[in-house]
Amino acid sequence: MTRRARLWLLLAGGAGLAVLFAAACLKLPAFGGDRHPYGDRAVRASLARHTANTVSSVNFDQRAFDTLGEMTILFAAVLGCVVLLRQTRDEHRAAPEPAEVALPVRRYALIVLPVALVSGLYVVAHGQLSPGGGFQGGVVAATALHLLYLGADYRALERVRPVGRYEVGDALAASAYLVTGLAGLIGSAAFLANTILPYGTFNTLSSGGTVPLLNAAIGMEVACAVVVLLARFLDQAVEIEGEGGS
Amino acid sequence: MADAVIVVALLLVAASATVAVVTRDPVRQALVLAVLGVVLAVLFTVLQAPDVGLSQLAVGSALTPLLLMLTVRKVRRRGQEKGRGR
Amino acid sequence: MSAVLDVLPYLVAGWVFLVGCYGLATSRNLIHAVGCLSVCQAGTYVLLLAVGYRDKATAPVYSDIKPGSRPVVDPVVQALTLTDVVVGATVTALLLALVVQISKRHDTVDPDELSELRG
């Protein structure tokens, strides 16, 4: 198909979609309406199980099976990246030269790094109480580690980041989620049912039954996944060279 | 008052998304996407979704642009190697 | 003002999605196309959160408010969006890994040149 024909086809399809979508929007309940039957029930169920952050309760208790699916997508995507970005036979590694880093950048990065790392872990740990949880905290902690690349250089990053261990950690976290789910089967409850642990005191770190456990598993999984992903991409961008490379 | 803030945030999202699409150079696009990530995080916070805002801030303004830039670097480096080889 | 606000968030979500689709279809560079795909994703987030919003409500977190004292927005759509933000980023990474492979195999990241190679 020529470029022109494709553009016309796109415009026709896009216009049709836009018209139908706009018509549908006009019939939707008005923005900011007061009727949220699912939301109200989710909030009630979450409070009954002593989980202060209802979003975490939806993710790791009421819809824990859905999160298992999401986690599997994440795991499969990381696996795919690792396979696609591996070093092939016709490529070789060239050690990157140590780069000069401006002093203010170095100082700023090295001061911010521990702060960012700790806040990432804090966000994971308090997932069932305050806004946050495994998904967000994992990304923050993993990205924080890469400030070392900004502040020092690539070699320093490689020393604190044995990729193999993070790959193992990724797999362990995924299985931890599954095992916690299987533990729900004990006591004739359902898979991933939040019945095996006491719900604890509302608004304390150990409240919510299995929510903190699943939350921690996801936090570890996401952090390891992001570290592995960035490691593979950095490898490709900085170190690995094709055959004709200098 | 809250409504006005929501309207402004929505319009900013629409504008930065449009700019991100019409920016054809991938490096510049990655920067615009980082801006879009921050604006989206603001919108989500205004819509009373701090959880989502937090993850959007971490992912949209740091992780995705970083991955895009690393890919650009890899692809361009390959292009240079080929150019020298010929 | 309020009549506009009733539908504006939905329309913005639709606009962001469609503009992302336009970029995807007209892109001359696969890396740019992946960026456009993440714009499309942003459209779906805006739509989901707009559906769950409630006027004069607060965030669905009870660590600092008494249960039942204030209305809260819908936590279900927030949970859906939240997981997708992070999982979507890893899928973006997978797509970028595919782009790197394509550039290795075919020495180009222009989708038009790629289809010429095949045909």
UniProtKB/TrEMBL annotation, chain A:
Its main location: membrane. Keywords: Cell membrane, Membrane, Transmembrane, Transmembrane helix. It is a multi-pass membrane protein. Residues 106-227 form the Na+/H+ antiporter MnhB subunit-related protein domain. InterPro entries: CPA3_antiporter_subunitB (IPR050622), MnhB (IPR007182), MrpA_C/MbhE (IPR046806). It is found in: Cell membrane. The chain crosses the membrane at residues 67-85, 105-125, 131-150, 171-193, 213-234. Residues 3-93 form the MrpA C-terminal/MbhE domain. Belongs to the CPA3 antiporters (TC 2.A.63) subunit B family. PANTHER family: NA(+)/H(+) ANTIPORTER SUBUNIT B, NA(+)_H(+) ANTIPORTER SUBUNIT B. This is Sodium:proton antiporter.
UniProtKB/TrEMBL annotation, chain B:
Residues 11-77 form the MrpA C-terminal/MbhD domain. Keywords: Cell membrane, Membrane, Transmembrane, Transmembrane helix. It is a multi-pass membrane protein. The lineage of its organism: Bacteria, Bacillati, Actinomycetota, Actinomycetes, Kitasatosporales. Its main location: membrane. It comes from the Bacteria. This is DUF4040 domain-containing protein. The chain crosses the membrane at residues 6-23, 30-47, 53-72. It is found in: Cell membrane.
